[in-house]
């Protein structure tokens, strides 16, 4: 299994399928000028499926989340999902997407074995969407979500990031809308993972701000015993139930102690954390032709060694914190 020196076991694998995207969310990507990974550097579909197979059959991974960049831009996505669904034991599989193109692919993804989707939507106002993502695609996202729900990719979870001066006042409206549509809403605190390195702790909207804003319209009570385990989202029951809302306070209330994640980038690097500054190159091991490409057992050993070196926390609170070189879009959120 993927154990680290703090006794954590990684069972949740995030697989980035591409660093490319059809939106340019301000908290993630610059308007232009970001260098894409070169095609030969990307893992092939076969290499991705092989690594997921090793993770699932040899390393105890039970949960696979496909992400990016925008994973729906990966031409082989449906085939990758289908091949992973045939693995023994079968992992639970979900997809984090901006929803553009989901209308077209939701049914095929469901048929291939995908269990669920998380769709990112930060605003109900098309003009704010255009400012936030620098593209006029609000309607496509709403259509994509509805198609996912209709295809049975449920529960459809909605990820929202609030940005000062843009959509910071929208938390209650987003929650009312999500409850009406039957989606599960989660707010994510903005993290320092933008390509422009423009994040400022002072200006960010915190979990505290979000809860305060929601409480102007709803009564929130902690779900269950209030313990979130390894789940990053703290969940709240809305107005006595049955709906809930989640808040992922990665910055102000980090959940590193219970982290169960391991990450694979589109170019075959293992990252132990979103904020890791070191990576382990599995692609080189897969492709090395001298003396011969690594066996499954050798790849598994490299992966275990990488996770053994996982740091205690993100380091966000450390004065020496350095933002990783890769932006969120190239790590896989
Ligand atoms: N393109 C897909 C999408 O937007 O859902 C998948 C990749 S995206 C990097 C995954 C998630 O990360 C999205 O929900 C997005 O809102 C979130 N995200 C991106 N940059 C972020 C940041 N700097 N802080 C917090 N969340 C961020
Ligand atoms: Fe693209 Fe997702 Fe990043 Fe937005 S958050 S730019 S949709 S990768």
TrEMBL record:
<feature type="binding site">
    <location>
        <position position="65"/>
    </location>
    <ligand>
        <name>GTP</name>
    </ligand>
</feature>
<dbReference type="InterPro" id="IPR010505">
    <property type="entry name" value="MoaA_twitch"/>
</dbReference>
<keyword id="KW-0411">Iron-sulfur</keyword>
<dbReference type="GO" id="GO:0061798">
    <property type="term" value="F:GTP 3',8'-cyclase activity"/>
</dbReference>
<dbReference type="GO" id="GO:0006777">
    <property type="term" value="P:Mo-molybdopterin cofactor biosynthetic process"/>
</dbReference>
<feature type="binding site">
    <location>
        <position position="259"/>
    </location>
    <ligand>
        <name>[4Fe-4S] cluster 2</name>
    </ligand>
</feature>
<dbReference type="GO" id="GO:0005525">
    <property type="term" value="F:GTP binding"/>
</dbReference>
<dbReference type="InterPro" id="IPR040064">
    <property type="entry name" value="MoaA-like"/>
</dbReference>
<feature type="binding site">
    <location>
        <position position="157"/>
    </location>
    <ligand>
        <name>GTP</name>
    </ligand>
</feature>
<comment type="similarity">
    <text>Belongs to the radical SAM superfamily. MoaA family.</text>
</comment>
<feature type="binding site">
    <location>
        <position position="69"/>
    </location>
    <ligand>
        <name>S-adenosyl-L-methionine</name>
    </ligand>
</feature>
<feature type="binding site">
    <location>
        <position position="96"/>
    </location>
    <ligand>
        <name>GTP</name>
    </ligand>
</feature>
<keyword id="KW-0408">Iron</keyword>
<feature type="domain" description="Radical SAM core">
    <location>
        <begin position="5"/>
        <end position="223"/>
    </location>
</feature>
<dbReference type="GO" id="GO:0046872">
    <property type="term" value="F:metal ion binding"/>
</dbReference>
<keyword id="KW-0342">GTP-binding</keyword>
<keyword id="KW-0456">Lyase</keyword>
<comment type="subunit">
    <text>Monomer and homodimer.</text>
</comment>
<dbReference type="InterPro" id="IPR013785">
    <property type="entry name" value="Aldolase_TIM"/>
</dbReference>
<feature type="binding site">
    <location>
        <position position="191"/>
    </location>
    <ligand>
        <name>S-adenosyl-L-methionine</name>
    </ligand>
</feature>
<feature type="binding site">
    <location>
        <position position="28"/>
    </location>
    <ligand>
        <name>[4Fe-4S] cluster 1</name>
    </ligand>
</feature>
<dbReference type="InterPro" id="IPR013483">
    <property type="entry name" value="MoaA"/>
</dbReference>
<feature type="binding site">
    <location>
        <position position="120"/>
    </location>
    <ligand>
        <name>S-adenosyl-L-methionine</name>
    </ligand>
</feature>
<feature type="binding site">
    <location>
        <position position="273"/>
    </location>
    <ligand>
        <name>[4Fe-4S] cluster 2</name>
    </ligand>
</feature>
<protein>
    <recommendedName>
        <fullName>GTP 3',8-cyclase</fullName>
        <ecNumber>4.1.99.22</ecNumber>
    </recommendedName>
</protein>
<dbReference type="InterPro" id="IPR006638">
    <property type="entry name" value="Elp3/MiaA/NifB-like_rSAM"/>
</dbReference>
<dbReference type="InterPro" id="IPR000385">
    <property type="entry name" value="MoaA_NifB_PqqE_Fe-S-bd_CS"/>
</dbReference>
<dbReference type="InterPro" id="IPR058240">
    <property type="entry name" value="rSAM_sf"/>
</dbReference>
<dbReference type="GO" id="GO:1904047">
    <property type="term" value="F:S-adenosyl-L-methionine binding"/>
</dbReference>
<feature type="binding site">
    <location>
        <position position="25"/>
    </location>
    <ligand>
        <name>[4Fe-4S] cluster 1</name>
    </ligand>
</feature>
<dbReference type="Pfam" id="PF04055">
    <property type="entry name" value="Radical_SAM"/>
</dbReference>
<keyword id="KW-0479">Metal-binding</keyword>
<keyword id="KW-0004">4Fe-4S</keyword>
<keyword id="KW-0949">S-adenosyl-L-methionine</keyword>
<comment type="pathway">
    <text>Cofactor biosynthesis; molybdopterin biosynthesis.</text>
</comment>
<comment type="function">
    <text>Catalyzes the cyclization of GTP to (8S)-3',8-cyclo-7,8-dihydroguanosine 5'-triphosphate.</text>
</comment>
<feature type="binding site">
    <location>
        <position position="256"/>
    </location>
    <ligand>
        <name>[4Fe-4S] cluster 2</name>
    </ligand>
</feature>
<dbReference type="InterPro" id="IPR007197">
    <property type="entry name" value="rSAM"/>
</dbReference>
<dbReference type="InterPro" id="IPR050105">
    <property type="entry name" value="MoCo_biosynth_MoaA/MoaC"/>
</dbReference>
<feature type="binding site">
    <location>
        <position position="21"/>
    </location>
    <ligand>
        <name>[4Fe-4S] cluster 1</name>
    </ligand>
</feature>
<dbReference type="GO" id="GO:0061799">
    <property type="term" value="F:cyclic pyranopterin monophosphate synthase activity"/>
</dbReference>
<feature type="region of interest" description="Disordered">
    <location>
        <begin position="313"/>
        <end position="333"/>
    </location>
</feature>
């Amino acid at each position: 299994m993927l154990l680290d020196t703090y006794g954590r076991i990684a069972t949740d694998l995030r697989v980035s399928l591409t660093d490319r995207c059809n939106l340019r969310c301000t908290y993630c990507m610059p308007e232009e000028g970001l260098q894409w990974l070169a095609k030969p550097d990307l893992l092939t579909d076969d290499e991705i499926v092989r690594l997921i197979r090793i993770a699932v059959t040899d390393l105890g991974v039970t949960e696979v989340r496909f992400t990016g960049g925008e994973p729906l831009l990966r031409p082989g996505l449906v085939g990758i999902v289908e091949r992973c669904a045939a693995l023994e034991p079968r992992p639970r599989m979900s997809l984090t997407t901006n929803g553009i193109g989901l209308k077209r692919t939701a049914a095929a993804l469901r048929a291939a074995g995908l269990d669920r989707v998380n769709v990112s939507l930060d605003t109900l106002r098309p003009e704010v969407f255009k400012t936030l993502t620098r593209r006029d695609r609000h309607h496509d996202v709403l259509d994509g979500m509805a198609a996912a729900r209709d295809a049975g990719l449920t529960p459809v979870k909605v990820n929202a990031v609030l940005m000062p001066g843009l959509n910071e006042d929208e938390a209650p409206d987003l929650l009312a809308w999500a409850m009406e549509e039957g989606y599960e809403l989660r707010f994510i605190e903005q993290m320092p993972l933008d390509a422009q390195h423009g994040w400022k702790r002072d200006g960010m909207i915190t979990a505290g701000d979000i809860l305060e804003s929601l409480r102007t319209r709803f009564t929130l009570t902690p779900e269950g015993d209030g313990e979130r385990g390894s789940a990053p989202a703290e969940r709240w029951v809305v107005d006595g139930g049955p709906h809930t809302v989640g808040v992922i306070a990665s910055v102000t209330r980090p959940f590193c102690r219970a982290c169960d994640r391991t990450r694979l980038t589109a170019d075959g690097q293992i990252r132990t954390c979103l904020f890791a500054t070191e990576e382990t190159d599995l692609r080189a091991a897969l492709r090395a032709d001298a003396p011969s490409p690594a066996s499954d057992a050798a790849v598994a050993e490299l992966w275990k060694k990488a996770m053994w070196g996982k740091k205690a926390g993100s380091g966000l609170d450390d004065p020496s914190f350095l933002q990783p070189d890769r932006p969120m879009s190239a790590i896989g959120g």
